[in-house]
Amino acid sequence: MFKPEDLFDLSQTDHAALFKDCTHAWEALPKIKEYIRANLKRELKNKCEGRAFIGDDVFVGEGTVVEDGVMIKGPAIIGRNCQIRHNAYFRENVIVGDNCVVGNSSELKNSVLFNGANVPHFNYVGDSILGHKAHLGAGVVLSNIKSTKENIWIMIEGQPRDTGLRKFGALVGDFAEIGCNAVLNPGSIIGRNSIIYPNVCWREVLPDNMIAKNKAEVDVVVLRPRSS
Q1: Burial class (CB in 10 A: 0-12, 13-18, 19+), 165
Q2: What is the pTM assigned to this prediction?
Q3: Band of the pLDDT at 228, cuts 50, 70, 90?
Q4: 154 partner at 20 to 30 Å CA-CA among 4, 53, 169, 197?
């Protein structure tokens, strides 16, 4: 499930060429910078609601609304009919497809969003790829670097494989749902249609059509009055 087409419908992006010659989907991450440099056409077709900062090396498509307080440093390519909500922060080398949402206080860096992906509330997306209609709940973090600063390794057929990447957040497949306040550790791969429940701290690979949830129980006790 590590090929680009295993995780993503490549017809749901205008940037499928980014994945050319990629045996594993994460191999596209270090190519984002040069891809944008080669394909960026600087133009702003969006509507602004309030005041936003948009850098020189940015394209924004028709029908996209950029709200007050947004900062798009660029380089960035943003598609059509997106909602870029209050105080969203785009750092360097970001590609966003059509009909996407990047919401309040969400931060993107060196990442790709396929058409219809949603990053709506207080999210961090670093060195990651989100598939068609993938959705992050409020507060979800895609952590992109190990505390030890070592390269990210992935288990392939029971054997560890060095990705060669020091920064690698997550690959989130088409229609995957990541619940509120979940954390995906560096190198996480989430299959198509899979679900991560809220507050889960996830690492490594979740295959297609699976659910990951905490087993912790909640104790319910009688409320007793405090002694005076």
Answers
A1: buried
A2: 0.93
A3: low
A4: 197
